[in-house]
Amino acid sequence: MPTFVEADRDYRAAIEAPGRELANAFASAHAAGPVNLKDRDLTHAVLLRLKSFFATQDEIKRSLQKVYAAPAADFFVETVCFFLKVALRQLNSSLVVASEKNIVRHQGALRPDISIWQGDKVVSAIECKTQLGWNRSKWLPDFEEREKRLQREYPEAKLFLLVLTSSNWPGFGTDPRAGKQFFVLLGDAGVGRIRHLDLAAPNMIIHRIEALIQEIHLHASGKPGVLQRISA
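Now predict its structure.
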C-alpha cells in the first residue's frame, strides 16, 4: 500500500509541470512563424490559455467543494508577458520585457505589471486588470497618476492599460485613447464565462493584443515602415 507521499507523486509532478514546460512553450512559440500584427492569433492564444486556467480552477473547486477560484490576475499578467516577449523578440530584439520590476529609483515603489526596457530605460509599461468593476469610479485618475509617476522617472515612457473584460464596468466610452493606449479584450463576457469562451462568436473581441503590441513597438522604434513590412 503506498504512502500518502507516494500517492501524491503524480499530482506534485503536475504542479511542477508549468515551470518545466515554460521553456518548451517559448521554443514552440518562437518556431510558430513571423508575428502578424494584423491578425488575431496572439489574441486567441492569450484567451485560450486563460480558458484552460479557468477550466483547471473549475475542477479544483468541484473536487474540493471550494467556493472561489484562485485569482486570475497573476495568471493574466504572466500570459500577456509570455506572448509579449515572443512578439517583441521578433519585432525589436533590443526591447526587454520584465514583470513586476521596480522602476522607481527613489522613494516610492512603482512596479507595473509589465515593463518594456531598452537598455537601462523604460520605454513602455502595461497595467493588466481582469475587469474594472471594483474601481469603476477611480480607475482613470489612478491610471493617470501612475503614468505621471512613471514619466517623472522616464519622461518618454508610455503607460498602457489592458483589461480582460468589459463586464461589470462602463468601459472606456468615447475616450480617444481606447484602442491606442487603453485596451479591453472581451465584450460583455464576465471573467467566470471565459471557461465557455467561443472565439467564433461575433463581436467577442473588442481590441486585439496585436494592436497593443503594435502601439508599443511604434512608440519604442518610431519606424512604422519597418512595422508594416514585418506585420504584412
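Residues 38-231 form one domain.
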